[in-house]
Request: fold
Amino acid sequence: MATACSTLVSAKRHRPIGLERKAFWMRIGIPREIKIKESRVALLPTQVKQLCAAGHDVLVEHNAGALAGAFDEDYVAAGARIAPDGPALYARAQMIVKVKEILRPEFALLRPNHTIIANLYCERDRVMLDRFLDVGLTAIAAEKAHPHKAGNSPLAGEIAALEGLRLVLLPYGGTGRHFMRHAGVMSTRVIVIGLGLAGRGALRTLFGLGVSVVGLDHTQGTLARAALDWENRDFTAAHIDTLAEHLPQADLVINCVRWDKDRTDHLLTRKMLATMRKGAVIVDVACDRAGAIETSMPTSWENPTYQVAGVTHFCVENLPSAVPEASSVSFADLIYTLVEPVADLGLARAVEDQDWLGAAVVCHAGKVVHERTARLQNMPSTPLAEALVV
Reply:
């Protein structure tokens, strides 16, 4: 394992043939995540090697990828340089690529020429958004731009299922029902709300353990596909409107529906908790505060659960960080689709070439350019094309 570095460690790099066709080189920084229990890294040596081969200068903070199985020497071998700490990296890099949002201790490190690419969720963090606007940097929200909307969704569903089943065990205050049939006794009964990628990840885990599942969705095609895929399992596919009918028998509810913040209604209300079994558990993958689950509020791995009306709620925001090697691979593959075009072409040309990317730009040059974020934060918005002409 590499030791701490007091200066940037260089690796020999050559400008590739044809690089003159690029708009410019970009110095890209990959800092170590400082969010509590966040063990992922935004880019792995595989992506770093591609960026360096394209002529970009990549800086990686010391030990940024260690928990994900990517060590300093691996990054150096891929062509990167190692920065001794966060301040050194932020001071040199033009693009900052992270997994999670910019936290308060990082605010002072931000500069106007930074382009931040990370899971940001600016619509729920006004303090961070105001800091971005004050600095005048460019912020691109990875959660709004994944071309296939995958991210770590299946992994989040899988971890949610495991954590939920653990909490159903009696020592953790659950109903005490076993997750598989035993001695003729019914197995744990689970409701999975939303059968997209996260929901399907949860189903894969649950069925591997023999659990009885009701899968709910609002789309008939999704329900039909799920019923066909899992026809040999203890599985019932039903419309999401039937949730209330299934709640009294459920030991565990896993919510995989991300709720529109414009909505004031809920799928599972506070009143509905009274119909659930004593010791029942709700795991909210989406973690929207008072979203699909009215009583949900984000929690952390340090304090993952709380109780409302005798029902345990588990609402950890960064579920995939529990398995950093696998989740870093999934995240890095997707965020690279954002990093590469912006690094190669610059923001203006990148959004012109790939319109889906423009939908992820939150702010630029002191202006909010993402209309929905502006509306939810009660702020004026500026069209991206207009903000780019500065």
Summary: Confidence is low (pLDDT under 50) at residues 1-23. The radius of gyration is 23 Å. The chain has 13 helices and 15 strands.
